[in-house]
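S.,

Sequence below, as promised.
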Amino acid sequence: MTEKMSTHQAEEDQRNEEILIYLNGEILPKAEAKVSVYDSGFMLGDGVWEGLRLYNGTWAFIDEHLDRLFEAAKAIDLDIGMDRDGVKNAVLETQKANGMTTDAHARLMVTRGVKTRPFQHPSLSQQGPTMTIIMEHSRPNLPRPIKLATVPHIRGLPMTQDPKLNSHSKLNCIIACIAAEKAGADEALMLDVNGFVNTTNACNFFIVRKGEVWTSTGDYCMNGITRQKVIDLCRENGIPVHERNYSLVDTYGADEAFLTGTFGAQTPVGDIDGRQIGSGTMGPVTERIRGLYKALIERECA
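The prediction came back faster than expected:
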């Protein structure tokens, strides 16, 4: 039986038992960083979040991550309680307190805050937002390409729970991942409402066919920052790239497939629904894109 894996699998690091966590202006030991059971995020998944990656002392693309965070907060009418510089300073203060310089991952979360009573209405959140930053030493550890299984579950639609919100409520993605695991895969490949290939439960999805890179239209998936960087790098370096509708038939016949995300950058996919993709290992186009992305990180995070 193949060993279980996930796209966010990291090396074990004992230092993570002693990390300090930012919570509403304080930096606290892990065991003391607690939120109320009345918090909107715990009770209802009412909040938004960002994932950030530290390379060589610099948080990669932090301004774009903050753009996405503040745009999502505005969309759900959530006042974060500080401006962009305040949020950035909170990240830097947490990094300094933990003595982190590289190979770290941060999850920055903002909820509507503590409720006065345990019900849904947002007017019951009267104490201001809850903001926390969990920062861990984190080096990806993926010993083989990812295996995906197609599931019937889809991401939220623009008129229901738009995936561009990066909301705390991830239940549909969690259910999709459970279904994929029960099918013997690592994670889930999710179609869009029209039956075209869309995304996975945790990352954006790409295929390579005859040297050309395909990804979904972007209408129904997370507006991934790494996704956009890959598209831009392809365009800048003469790699044909298409944001388009395509089917599972196109996907099974692909020469390569890979995922993108802040944590893993570009993660090769070797198997989808029991069909080997290409050689079953990282293909040459994926490898080239990974190299281009690494060079971009080195420029941005020098």
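The helical segments are 40-44, 62-75, 84-98, 171-182, 225-236, 248-252, 284-300.

Coffee later?
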